[in-house]
Amino acid sequence: MKAEKISVVIPVFNEEAVLEKLFERLIPVMESLHRDYEILMVDDGSTDRSLEIMKEHGGDRVIIVELTKNYGQHAAIFAGFENSEGDIIVTLDADLQNPPEEIPRLISVMEEGDYEVVGSVRKARKDSVFRKIPSRVINALTRRITGVILSDWGCMLRAYRRSVVDYMVSSHEHSTFIPALATSFAKRITEIEVEHEQRYAGQTKYSFSKLITLHFDLITSFSEFPLKLLLYLGFIMAFSGVGFGIFLAVARLYFGAAWAAQGVFTLFAILFFFVGTQFFALGIMGEYVGRIYREVKSRPPYTIRRIY
Ligand code: UDP
Ligand code: MG
Fold first, then answer.
1. Out of 3.90.550.10, 3.30.230.10, 3.90.70.10, 3.40.1360.10, which CATH number does the structure's domain 6-223 have?
2. What is the pTM of this model?
């Protein structure tokens, strides 16, 4: 029963300052489990010495997947998933914000509770306010979109069963948010509380625009709500245009021609109606575009240069 292999997947983008420390802490933890394991380091197009450091200090349990350019954290994790062999796959950030010491607990919770996904909640989150506030909004939004009550979607310290990872890999989506995607392929999901630390060294690899892209990906790949919004907006506008027109006609009969300002108001009513129908039409087009968008998502999410 205890023979299941563990894969640890870590995306790396310009993390030269933390990698040695990461191996120093992660490898003893993995050894202490006394079972088969592998560590997949995905070099997400780093331009610093990350790759050399990984080759030098990784040891024989470390597999390095080198991507051709920077595809983003989630695409990098996918590259790791696809090249992993473990029965349980753990994802982790390279910057040591998620302590590797929590991995054994993550795995034991998964095995004892027969869970398919074990997420984690950051007990005391050590990030700037600018990083925390958007996260809070996104957490609430993701709960609504996916309908799964998890409290911390951003924390990447998570464990997945092989079956869930296989489904994710076979779904061929190139812009996606892994913790949310995983929930659609798992039935038993739980969360545990974990420590959170300051980034060990270096800067956050998420610029403001990268953060926006990530969250836009999250919303657009799990719901078509933004498109529906257009449709609703158009409908409401056209409807209020008609309502306004009726009101004007009644008021005109009641108060006489002078009240209606020589038909200026009527013009507004007509305008409202047309603007509304235009939005509506745009919304319908958007629906179709959305469907096409879903179809074309099958483009490869990353390209690997070499595996060490
Ligand atoms: N990362 C990556 N590609 C990117 C951005 C980030 O592989 O384009 C990795 C990064 O090396 C780290 C993890 O994703 O291992 C989380 O990034 P970071 O710590 O900068 O994000 P934050 O903690 O600020 O959310
Ligand atoms: Mg970090």
1. 3.90.550.10
2. 0.77
